[in-house]
Amino acid sequence: METYTQYIELINDYLNNLLSKEARVDFETKLQNDTAFNTIYQEHIVFVNGIERIEIKYDIQKAKRTYHTEKWIKISGISILVIGVLVMLYTLVFNTSKMEPTPNSDSLNTIIIDSTSNKKISSKTFVDSTKVNEIETKSEHEIRYTTTTIYEKFGGTSSTDLEIKKHPQTISFNTQKDTTITCKEGTVLKITKGSFINPKTGKTVTGKVDIKVTEYYKLSDILLANLSTVSNDRQLETGGMLYIEATQGDIKLELKDDKSIDISFPTKNKKTGMQLFSGEWKDENINWKLQTDDVLENLDISEEHIEELVEVPFSVVEEVPIFPGCEDEVSNEAIKKCTSDAISKFIRKKFNTDVGLGLGLTGRQRINSIFKIDTEGNIIFIQSRASHPRLSEEVDRIVALLPKMIPGKQRGRAVIVPYSLPINFDILEDEELSKRFGSTTVRDTSLTGSLISSESVEMDTIYTSNRGSIEFIREVMHDKDFPVDSLFINEWEQYKTQKLIRSINIETKPNYIESAIVLRKPLIEMDGSKFKILEDDSITRGGHIIRVPWDKAQVPSSSRGYKLVPKPIFQAGSKMVTGKAFEARLGDVADNTISSRDVGYYALRTSNLGWINCDRFINGRTTRIKYKLKIKNAEGASVNMVFKSLNSALPSWYTNDVYDFQTVGANEDVVLVAIKRKDGKLYYDMVETKTKSNPQIDFDFKEVTIEQLKKAIENIKS
Amino acid sequence: MSDQDILVLFKNGQREKAFKKLYHLYPRIEKLVLSKGGSKDDASDVFQEALIILNRNLETSNFKLTSSFYTYLYSVSRFVWSDLQKSHTKQQLQELNTQEVQVFQEVIEEKNYQLAEHAFLEIGKRCQQLLQLFYHQAMSFKDIAKVMQFKSSKIAKNQKYKCLQKAKDIYQTKLKSVQS
């Protein structure tokens, strides 16, 4: 039994891959040699598989159920649809006899509405926006009806007529407000407040009014409604027909004399010369009469166009674009917050802060990125500005990675939404960097501020000058042989943070302030703290020792204070390397990871030129121009512009064979530095020029060593 | 939904979804079983068995689906059904090609697993739960002890071996009765 349990445990470990390599081999040999063990193993395998069946079966059953449910839903969905259609047909056929149609010329008061007419709306109104078109049929919109066919159709039983009649769309609205109604097929009605009167009382109607609109745009609709497009025997091309009726309760309303309804037709292809016609039944056929000489502009066409191109900023757009995952927020405000938070979070997550290293930038970096979310929800038109092109490139890269969003909407239409995204991030200061690089920095311990200063040195530089913290401690201790080692310096620092050592100012003589150091009592009493100070050497206040450091001269200067900073590192392909390594790799023919751009940055950076951001020119007083350069034999060269007056370099953006410096001041004395690395060799050329629009500059690349290149750049400054 | 998509579902561990897609093939398999004189319930069982075998194969790394899912499931279902009926003759078995032999062996092997499954279902509910927690959810004995309120992980461990032993005994007797 005991061995059996052990075997099972072993087998479990084997199956779960928990055994070491040797143990595995042992196990496999045992499996081959020990039949009893093998049987147990086989049996166990079968058993584990047997248990597994239960799990698989469970999944299969679940899958089967969902499959059947979905199938059932599909079938029932289709049958409901079929039944619905049947019911609709049934009601239509049986109700027609009850409905009264009689499109009679007597009962029809033919009235038009348009933006200019003052005519009354009465019970029924046809409006047709048509174009006078000579008889030749040009498109499918042009219909010619002969009176006979119409008559036949019309003369048929009224029941069949109604069966195919289009149902009007009923819209309720408040007459006390200006109302814009968009109908199903796109007709837009603009009704000003208090437009309707009750024909019986003659009073302006207030409150809710129902308006019924039937739109005839499709050829089939027009034909089925027995509408034709003939005006005094001339063929008209129709832009659509409308039937409008306004009611309140059972009372049909009329339009006030001085009011009008603006109607816009949703014509896709704009046709000029559309005019308003009013319909008039004549011989059981409808005849359209030109109502006004004013040409009806297809208002909505221009409107539609404008709306499509409209850009509404994120802060004001009615419905903001929605970042995936923010759909469930309740209010627009919440969605807005969710979306902007999500974008920021996304950028934060993806932004590679290492990009900032080795560019000679420190401190807070501000990058501004502007992009647009188009009507499809895609991110387009990304533009970023930063203090260094590497940074803006990185931001561009990330912004382009943003997921597709649900587009923003203004008045119900998808619009382009520009989004401005400021990004701040810190590149660590030198001191922090030195920590980060693990150097053993001896820090400045000047308690009195100006006593000791130390200078920044590169990490492996030997440096001789300056008093360090050792001297300072000795000055405080009034003991030139006070033993100070690095451990003690660390402790000293700690005591400082624990406020056991503090610096204060005291008046040693009248009108004479000196800085002094307080060594607090616990420090003196602490075991192993090395602070043992003779009583006569001290001023005691509350048990602490307050003492003025010795004069500097009393402690001989023997040690040095360093502040070590990491050597600048540079980008070589995807890696960051020190300058030395960088230069060493330049000559390596096989090493093609270092691009011309990397060399360009390296050369300019090591020459102590500052970088300049083209933003700088935006608010300058000088005239600004766009500076773009096209170079024939560029071959991926890096081109930078060095401003002699500013002692700074401006990098260029390289896209599609064009070096773009974006906006620069005009008439500046600059040197264009083109650097190219090819097959382990460096080439360069410099051209002195003044900035002006459309520059024509050719480079004549010469081979150089990195030393010569650096020197050449140094010389620009002088 | 192509076979490739279904394979991806399996790979991503969306086994249930994949099964759902494969169920679209069920009506055709059902037809096969019905034509051979089986009932609808038989067809359902056969198809389920075929899916289990397919799933097992997909989990082994060296398995490659050479034909479409339908062809594969069809041939497996055919063997499962004939095995259920014990209708294959020696003659038939000799005529099988290598691929079919492979499938046939899988079907036979699966039958063993089925026996183990039945044995497992005959041990107590608590035993079942314990074994499932250990083998499926890969829970540690410590967690199992917590979930099943054993006093210690050691007790859980002991209990597990007892359960396993019990199930295996049942399995052995079943195996004997089948073979005899």
UniProtKB/TrEMBL annotation, chain A:
Keywords: Membrane, Transmembrane, Transmembrane helix. The chain crosses the membrane at residues 72-93. The keyword Transmembrane applies. It comes from the Bacteria. This is FecR family protein. It comes from Psychroserpens luteus. The lineage of its organism: Bacteria, Pseudomonadati, Bacteroidota, Flavobacteriia, Flavobacteriales.
UniProtKB/TrEMBL annotation, chain B:
Keywords: DNA-binding, Sigma factor, Transcription, Transcription regulation. It holds the Pfam family Sigma70_r2. Residues 24-88 form the RNA polymerase sigma-70 region domain. The keyword Endoplasmic reticulum does not apply. The keyword Transcription regulation applies. NCBIfam families: sigma70-ECF. Belongs to the sigma-70 factor family. ECF subfamily. PANTHER family: RNA POLYMERASE ECF-TYPE SIGMA FACTO (PTHR43133), RNA POLYMERASE SIGMA FACTOR HI_1459-RELATED (PTHR43133:SF8). This is RNA polymerase sigma factor. It comes from Psychroserpens luteus. The lineage of its organism: Bacteria, Pseudomonadati, Bacteroidota, Flavobacteriia, Flavobacteriales.
